[in-house]
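Format notes (please read before filing issues)

Several people have asked whether sequences and structure tokens are stored in separate files. They are not. Every record keeps both together, in the order shown below: the sequence lines, then the token lines. Line labels are part of the format and must not be stripped during preprocessing.
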Amino acid sequence: MSEPTVIELGPRDLLVVAGLPGAGKTTMLGHAAPGLVVLDSDQVRARLAAVPLPYRCYRPVVHAWHRARVVRRALAAGPIVVHEPSTRASTRALLALVGVLSGRPVRLLFLDVTAAEALAGQRSRGRIVRPRSFARHVRRAGKWRTELLASRVPAGWSSVQVIDRTRAARTRVVAKLLVGC
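Then the structure lines:
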């Protein structure tokens, strides 16, 4: 087994951990350094869990609230980790814009898994994305994945790193320690 991967975040970094639903983003971020700010739409969904409606009815509210949290946090100090599938081009453009407006380098960590691996991940966590919605994620991620594997850094992003599920399980995200001047 190879050494664990450590991703160090600078004081203003905005790291987007992206990939298909079920790719292993939540599992990987469970190993993030304590105290590191991780923003995940599931945090908002949990706060709204008492809403007596199916999730699909209030999903737009969850995603809007999540994006508002990202913008608000980007205006504060310290590194930020954003858990986001980012399969929509509009979401990626918004995150790049947030980086530009807040003066933060926006870094991408893309968990590259097959649709079958992602579905297995969904089953293991006990929450399956509806088939039509998942198919849209897979379709939208396809072209973007090709660009990322060709080492193309999207406009507005400072870096891209692509890892597989096995490596993600051995990856830890930490804030870089600043040594006195």
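For reference, the curators noted about this record: The mean pLDDT is 91. The CA atoms of residues 46 and 62 lie 10 Å apart.
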